[in-house]
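Give me the fold.
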Amino acid sequence: MKAFKFSLQAVLDNANNIKDECSLRLKEALDNLRAVEHLKDLHIKMLKDNEAKLLKDCNSITFREIKIYMEELAVKIEQMNKEIEKLTTIKDQRLEELKQAKITCSAYEKIREKKYSLYLDEIRKFEEKQIEELINYNYIAKAEQ
């Protein structure tokens, strides 16, 4: 095996390689930073252009007026929400009343059907009684002859 030789040149070369690698990484980081700053500048320019356009479009109305208008809308929305809650409560009450009315109608319908059935039974019994009396009358009349 060869004996290891310590050389200042090898240490210097190694240090230079590390320095070059760090320089390359630093250059890449700076390039990335410049690209990000360029994008930031483009976005700022675009925002300023949009702000100028919005200000131009909104010359007749101020931001304070917009804020007041939005607050008024919030109040109206709150009032509408209360009205919706009230109407929902009324709707629920009416729905419950409708359910009760359907139950009542169903009960009345059953009672009516039962009464009609009893009526038909009474008519049937009356007719049977009349037929029996007629048969008995005819039978008695034939027997007397």
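Residues 11 and 91 are 89 Å apart (CA to CA).
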